[in-house]
Amino acid sequence: MIELSYDEALFVVLLGWLLLLTILWRREVAREKRNEWQVYNSRLFHCDRCHHSFLTGDPVNLTRCPRCNAVCIRRRRRDSE
Asked: Which domain holds residue 8?
């Protein structure tokens, strides 16, 4: 049997907890990065009829509002030109 003193056993348990916390922290960071929102001007639309802002899946210039089905045109921002 392996001889282990109390301070060595406590160190092994503490090391195990730190390793587990590090693994869980890295997993959470990777998960947040994967699910992070990214808003692009080419995908952000604002409906003039119902004032609903929404994102589209494709970078297009013309789409329909999901709330009121009105045609929405993407307007270019003046500071981006």
From this structure: 1-36
